[in-house]
Amino acid sequence: MRSLIDIHDFSVKELDDLSATAGDSIENPDKYAEACHGKKLATLFFEPSTRTRLSFEAAMLELGGSVIGFSDAGSSSASKGESVADTAKVISCYADIIAMRHPKEGAPYVASQNATIPVINAGDGGHAHPTQTLADLLTIHREKGRLDHLTVGFCGDLKYGRTVHSLIAALSRYAGIEIVLISPEELKLPNYVKFEVLKKYNMSYREETDLENAMPSLDILYMTRIQRERFADQAEYERLKDSYILTPDKLTVAKPDLAILHPLPRVNEISVKVDADPRACYFKQVENGKYMRMALILKLLAEAEKSSEKQSSKGDLLVNKIVCKNPRCITSCEQELDQVFKWTEKENGICRCLYCETKEIVTERKN
Ligand code: NCD
Q1: Angle formed by the axes of helices 12-27 and 130-144, nearest 10°
Q2: Which residue among 55, 121, 129, 225 has the greatest number of ligand 1 atoms within 8 angstroms of its CB, and so is best to mutate?
């Protein structure tokens, strides 16, 4: 069964096809108005969200389908202790497709391994958020006319900002991308993104702490909120929360055709005075997100109809040999899950948790 857990689950051609479908649905909404008639989307949101959940719901309603679900863990059986695997099995009996958001990294992957319907990762902890990436890609494409040969600056919380991790992974597929990482020391991009994406795909990147320094070179500026809910130490959040605030005067040195993106919600990292600047694209990005989610739902439902085979990728895996040490990983709270690691650099003994990508070095071969 085809799901979208990580942006790399889709080829570049598939991403292009999604953009084409999204474009067509903008031009010809009537053609899509009944496309999902009789189908149900389940939105399982174990973490607060307004825009992503409503974007999924609006997408399904625009396709003539219907929606069931919950919007906080307290109103689901998770509060009674139900596992993600069981929830996925149960919801498979009620709906045709699942969109899941969860605070634990890897939870939507667990759901996809247990559901008999497609699962869409709508954000897992600080790990990944591939459908926001679909919105970002369509926005970049519509604003710049291309997805290659661009200098893209990411600014703010690059450590916990899952949208950043997924967009960098998507951009690794395109030629001539220069990445500029602008963050405080404490909120730098996690090593797994640096090693598994930037270095692995030979992407050109540099790190900065100063937004003004980076500004003149940028074609895209991707601003992010400091992710208060992921900080173990709230005093550290207070210290870092105002690290970057984009104001009109900071944009005087920017390119005239810069595109400013932000996944939203905005706290105060972009002054509302910037909204009137034609380079501000974050509200268009919201709209693009709905059209990309429509295209995604259509694609996954069509593929589910064609095949009911269970996805199996247990090739080069270490099962129950190593325990993941990431306290935010889904395996830290669902004790009966297999501990699964995949080799990423077998020659150097390096493997990563299949759920959250935390690294482990194996000195003595355990398989
Ligand atoms: C993002 C998320 O949930 O990661 N928002 C979203 O999807 N609309 C960004 C954020 O919460 O800062």
Answers
A1: 70
A2: 129
